[in-house]
Amino acid sequence: MRGSGFGNRESTGARLESARYLAVQSMAMPDFVHAAVRAYLSGLTPPDDGLLAEVRDRSKADGVPALSPDAARLLHVVALAAAPRRIFEIGTGYGCSGIQLARALAADGLLFTVERDPRRAAVARGHFERAGLADRVNVMVGEATRLVYKVAGPFDLIFQDGGKDHYEPLLDRLVDLLRPRGILVSDNILWQGDVIPGFRDEPAHAPASATAIIRYSRRLADDPRLETVFLPIGDGVAVSVKRDTKVCPQ
Ligand SMILES: C[S@@+](CC[C@H](N)C(=O)[O-])C[C@H]1O[C@@H](n2cnc3c(N)ncnc32)[C@H](O)[C@@H]1O
Fold first, then answer.
1. Radius of gyration of the chain from its Cα atoms, rounded to whole angstroms
2. Which ligand 1 atom is nearest residue 115's CA?
């Protein structure tokens, strides 16, 4: 592992995940949007600042997933619009998305972010420190399936970027944790095209994870508590707003 003395201590599970991530990264990300359109739009988008670029490079070098630049920008803009005081994130990684989220917080706001790999959590803490955000970010180390019941809502915004098998089982709890009109952002809903039969010649991921994401997206689409838009940005992002039943009963 680059730039840390923790490499030998990384768990077998995390090493396997990193190896799988590097293998997946070596497959070209399919074009969900025409390449010329993406090039045009990315020409309008400011590049990552120095720290974000460094976090992204380090994530890539270590095989730790990080949100794509366009999806990270979307997350930041959505978060700014929500003017959040409290944000919850599942899947800290090295902190790329967390930096974008925490930068949108009010001065007295807090981001709670969950990471099961202690080594990744330690690296992310260092990045939040360098971003001047350490006082606004609480990195919680452990299993998301347990920690979602340790935090208390309401949250203004939740970002789901953890284990894909857990997306659907955790949905009810995350909706409960959101305030009315709160926003749930979910990454990887296109799973490099694996959710679309016949899109790829060879699947990039295990079929079970694609099935889990398909089930999750169906739940988002059908959930009467949520209003959701699905976007072909990055690896596919869903943005859901929790309905305020007092304002718009369903
Ligand atoms: C896609 S990466 C997060 C990337 C990060 N959001 C970013 O953009 O920089 C997912 C992370 O979730 C963590 N993770 C996966 N399953 C988890 C679980 N059940 N509980 C807690 N963390 C989990 C992984 O260790 C990994 O670091």
1. 17
2. 22
